[in-house]
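Section 4.2 – Deliverable D4.2 (structural model, holo form)

The reporting period included a commitment to supply a predicted holo structure for the target in complex with uracil. Inputs used:
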Amino acid sequence: MPVFEMSDANFPVDAEGRTYHVECRRGDIANRVVTVGDPQRAKLMAKKFDKILLERSSHRGFLIITGIYKDVPITVVSIGMGLSMMDFFVRETRAVVDGPMSIIRFGSCGSICDAKPGNIIVCTSSYGIMRNYDHFTNPFKKAESPYLITDRVQGDPTLTLSLSTKLKNSMGKDSVFEGSNGCADSFYGSQGRLGSNFVDENENLIPTLKKKYSDAVSLEMEAHMLYHLAAVSKDAQSGEQSIKAACALIVFADRTGNEFITPEASQIAVEHCTEAIFNTLVEENFKGNNLHPVEGSV
Ligand code: R1P
Ligand code: URA
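Output (C-alpha cells):
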C-alpha cells in the first residue's frame, strides 16, 4: 500500500496537488528560491525574513520555508544531499511555480584552491565527476578511466556576478573566490578522499581535475545538477529557458591543508552571506511575485 494516495504515475501528486517527494503545491514556492543542504542552515537563513508565510517538512526530508524579505517572497528549501535530491527539488518546485524562477544554491564544499574554511566560493561553472562503475567491476573495462569528468555548465552570468559582488561587499573581497566547481557522486571516492576499505583508484583525481580545468576551485555534490537542469529548462509556451541558477559555497574542508571548519565559523558564514543572497534575489527584475499562499498552508 502506498504511504500516500497519489494520482498520475508519470508525475505523482496527491489530492491537494502536492508533489510526491518535496510535498509542494501551487502557491507554496516563490519564484525566487534559495536551496541549501542542511535544514539548520535553512532555519538560520529564515530568521532574516520579515515574515514567514509557510514552513513545511516533507516525509522525504525536504524542508520548505517561504517568507517575505523587503516585501518580496523568497523560498528557502533544504534538500539533503546529492544529485537525486537536487533533481527532485528542481523538477517538483518548477512544476508548481508559474513564470521564471531564479534559484541560488548556498551549500558547503571542499576547497582545492587557496580558499580556507569559512571563505566563500562562487561557482562560475560546474562539471560532474562520476565513478566509472564498470571500470572497477568489469575486467574488460579496466583500460577505461576510473572517473568520468563532464564538460562544464555555466551558472547564469548576470545572477552569478550580482551574487559574487554582494558577497564580496559583505564578506570582504579576499574572502570570496570564484571558479569551476566539481560536483561529485560521492563525498568520498569521487572527491579523491583516500581510505583502505574500498578500491577507489582516486590518488590522482584532484590533480587530474586541476589539469583539465585550470580554474577548478571546489568539490561538492549538487551544483552541476542545478546548472544542468537550469540549462535545459524550458517554458512550455515560449520554449525559452525558465530557470536561472547561481551557487555560493562555504568552504568546510580545506583539502590541501587538511583542515575542517568549526560549527561557530560555519554559523558566522551563514549569517554573513544570507542578506547578500536574499538581496541578489530581490534584485531579480522579473515580475514573478506570483505567490498566492493557499488557504491552510500558511
Ligand atoms: C556533504 O557533506 C554535503 O555538503 C555539501 C555537499 O554538496 C553535500 O551535500 O553541501 P551542503 O552543505 O549544501 O549539503
Ligand atoms: N561538502 C562536500 O561535498 N565536500 C567537502 O569536502 C565538504 C563539504
